[in-house]
Amino acid sequence: MNPYQTLDANAFWAKAVAAKNALDISELWNPKWKIQPSEKISTFGSCFAQHIGNALQTNNYHWFDGEPAPHKLTTGACRTFNYGIFSARTGNIYTTSLLRQWTEWALGHCQPPSEIWVREGRAFDPFRPVIEPNGFANAEELNNSRKAAIKGFERCIKESRYFVFTLGLTESWFSKSGGHEYPLCPGTAAGTFVDNEHEFHNQNSTEVRDNLLTAMKLMREVNPTLRFLLTVSPVPLTATMSKKHVLVATTYSKSVLRAVAGELAQLHDHIDYFPSFEIISTPPYRGMFYEPNQRGVVPAGVGHVMKQFFDCLYGKYPDLMRLQAGAIAPEITTAANQAAVCEEELLGAFSSRAVPS
Amino acid sequence: MMKLCVLGNSHVAALKLGWDKIRESYPQVSIRFFAAPGSRLQHLNVDGSRLIPANKMLREILSVTSDGEPMIETSDYDAFLGYGLSFDVGPIDQHLSEAVFDTYCRERATRNNNFRLARKLMSMTKQQIFMGHIPLQADNGPIWPSPYVSYEKLFQRISAVLSESNITLLSQPEKTITSSIRTKNEYTKGSVRLKVSQGSFSAAEHADDDVRHMNGLFGAIYLADALDKILASVESSEVSVAYSEVS
Q1: Which residues, including other chains, have CB under 8 Å from residue B20's CB and lie 6 or more apart?
Q2: Nearest CA to B145 among B69, B86, B225, B187?
Q3: A78 to chain B: nearest residue by CA?
Q4: Exposed, middle or buried: residue B200 (CB in 10 Å: 0-12, 13-18, 19+)?
Q5: Which residues in B121-233 belong to E strands, given as ranges?
Q6: Of A279, A235, A285, A239, whose CA–CA distance to A257 is shortest?
Q7: pLDDT tens track for B115-153
Q8: Which of A277, A333, B11, B218 lies at a CB distance of 3.0 to 4.6 Å from B214, suitable for a disulfide?
C-alpha cells in the first residue's frame, strides 16, 4: 500500500491527459473560493487579462470598471482610448514590479515622476505610452489623465473582492536616475532611448515574488478582504533583450512567472492560481490555440480557457447560479474575437527582418 | 410670414403650450408641430420633398399634433426646428482629454435620431435647420453630472460639430437655468408630456418626480428665445441671397 493508490485519476498523466482528447481534459482548476456573480472583480496585467475581463462580463459576473468611459461613448471609441480594457486605464502592467509601482502611486506611498515624453508637439505618458493614440495635448492634460487612472486603480484596490492579475514578463526597463519602471522601452512607442539612463533588467524569481508580495501586502492593508487570482500569460515574448534566443528567453520568463504564481498560491489562502497558461501553451494542446505566428491566441483558445474557468467554478460550487440571461457560450464570443490590445507587440515592428504577424 | 416646422418628441408638448401663450406676439410667424413620443420620428421616410410616416400609428399621431397634416411637405416651410436632442452627460467624474471629449461630442451630436432626421431634411430642402436639446434637468433633480464638463463647453463643442452639417444648435435660455446648471424648478411644476388619444393632442401632466419635462411657461420662454434667433438668421440669410443676386 502506498499513497499513490488513493489519488484521483486527475493525478495521473496516463488517465487525465494521455487517454483524453485535448479538449476533454478537465478539472484543471480547483477554485479556492466560491466567486459570486455579485462580487466585484478587477482585472489587470498582461494582454491576456483583457480576455478574462471580457468573459466575466459576458457571463454576467461583476467585472469592476474603476475608470468608466464617458456615458454612451461607443464601443469603438472606448477601445480607441483604452476604456474598458482593464479595470482602470493603466495600460498593460506586464511585471510585478510595475504592479507594485502602480500600487504605491495609488495608495500614496510615492508620487509618479514628472517625466513626460514629447513627440511632434504631443505629450506621451511614459507609463501609459499608447493609452491615447495621439498622446495628449499638453503636460497638464496628461497629468490629469494619469491622476484619473491612478484614482481608478485605487478604487479597484479598495472596492474589489477579487483582483485578477496576469503576469506577463520578467524583462523590464528602468530609469537609472529616477528608479521608476516603464512598461515599454523608451523609444519604442514614444520617448527617446538614452543609453546611460535607460536600463534593462531581466528579473529573477526572487524579485518577481517579492514585488508581487509587496504589492499585495499594500493592497490588503487598505482592503483586508481582497483576494488575488493569478494567471500567467501564455503569449510568448515579441522580442528579448536578454541576448538569448527569444524562445529560450520566453521559456525563462514564463517559467519564473509560473513558479512564483504557483508558489504563492500554495502558501497563501488569499492567493489562487488559474491555469490558463497550461491550457494554451502546454504540449497536450499541441499549440492548437495559437495563431499561425505561434504567438497570438485565437478566440477559440480564449473561449476554451474561460469555459474551463466557469466549468471548474460551477463544478465545485454547483449552487452558483449560471445567469443565462444575455450570457452566451464562452467558446466564441464577440468580445473574444476582438484583438487584444497588446502594447508589447509594438516591439515586433523594430525587427530588421520583421515577419508580418 | 415665416413658416416654421417643429419636429420632435414628447418635449414638444411644452413648446406647443408655450406657443399658445405667445403666438399673438409673433404675427409674422406660423408654426406647425410634428411630434411623436420617444423615437417614433425615426420612422419618417423621404419621398421627394416630403417626409412620409412609415406606419399608421405615426401617421395618426402626426395628424393630431400638426392639426391635420399626416406628412411633412418640406417646401411649405421656411425653417425647421428639431427639438429633442439628448444632452445627458452621465457621471463623468474625472478629466477627459480633449481627444476623448471631441470624440464624445461628435458621437453625441451625430449618433441620434435627431441628427438623422436633420440629414433627411437636408437632402430635401435648402432651408435652415435648427436643433434644440431637451431641457436640463430640474433643480430638484440630480446635479449636472460632472464638475469636469461644463454646459458651455459641451454646448460649444456639439454646436461646432452640428455646424459642420449647417445645423444650428440653440441653447436653453439663460433665464431658465440656475447657477448649478439645472432648469429652475418653477418651469417643471405642472410639466406636461405629449399625449395623443382619440384624435386630439393634449398635454398630460407628468409625475411629480419627473425632472425632465417642462411646463408651458418654459415653452413660451424657450420658443420666444428660439424664434428671435431663427428669425434673425432666416432674415440674414434672405438678405445675403438677395445681395448675391443683385451683385
Answers
A1: B216
A2: B86
A3: B100
A4: exposed
A5: 128-133, 167-170, 192-197, 200-205
A6: A235
A7: 999 999 999 999 999 999 999 888 766 656 577 888 888
A8: B218
Residue A333 pLDDT more than 50? no
Q: Which residues of A make CB contacts under 8 Å with B? A: 67-68, 70-74, 77, 80-81, 132-134, 136-137, 141, 144-145, 147-148, 151-152
Nearest to B104 among A70, A132, A136 (CB): A70
Cα angle A57, A62, A64 (rounded to 5 degrees) comes to 95
Nearest-5° angle of CA A12, CA A18, CA A21? 125
ipTM of the complex: 0.85
- Measured between alpha carbons, how far apart are the two ends of chain B, in Å? 26
Q: Report the alpha-carbon distance of residue B152 to residue A3 in Å, rounded.
A: 75
Amino acid identity, position A50? Q
pTM metric for this prediction: 0.87
Do residues A183 and A128 lie in contact, with contact meaning Cβ atoms separated by under 8 Å? Answer: yes
Grid coordinates representing B125? Answer: 430642402
Pairing of strands A122-124, A171-175: unpaired
DSSP label at residue A18? I
Other CB atoms closer than 10 Å to residue A7's CB: what's the count? Answer: 10
- Partners of residue B107 in chain A, C-beta under 8 Å: 72-74, 77
- Residue A12 half-sphere exposure toward CB, CA atoms < 13 A: 10
Rounded CA Rg of chain A: 20
CA distance A98 to A93: 6
For B157-184, the pLDDT digits (tens) are 999 999 999 999 999 999 998 877 788 8
Which grid coordinates belong to A74? 461607443
User: Left, alpha or beta for A332 (phi > 0: left; psi -120 to 50: alpha)?
Assistant: beta
CA distances from B37 to B84, B196, B202 (A): 10, 9, 12
Contact A86, A44 (CB under 8 A): yes
Please indicate whether residue A353 or residue A102 has the higher confidence score (pLDDT): A102
How many angstroms from the chain centroid is the CA of residue B241? 26
Rounded Cα distance, A354 and A287, in Å: 22
Q: Which residues of A are less than 8 Å from B88 in CB distance?
A: 71-72
Residue A289 has phi, psi (to 5 degrees) of: -95, 5
**Interface contact B95-A67, CB threshold 8 A:** no
With 80 as the cut, is the pLDDT of residue B90 above it? Answer: no
Show residues of chain A in contact with B85, CB under 8 Å: none
Residue from A22, A17, A9, A45 nearest A230 by CA = A45
Closest C-alpha among A27, A19, A103 to residue A307: A27
| DSSP string of A32-77, one letter each residue | SS---TTS-EEEEESTTHHHHHHHHHHTT--B--SSPPSTT--HHH
Cα–Cα nearest to B84, from B125, B22, B150, B39: B39
Q: What's the confidence (pLDDT) of residue B86? A: 81
CA–CA distance, B140 with B136 (Å, rounded to integer): 11
Chain B residues whose CB is inside 8 A of the A81 CB are 97, 99-100, 103
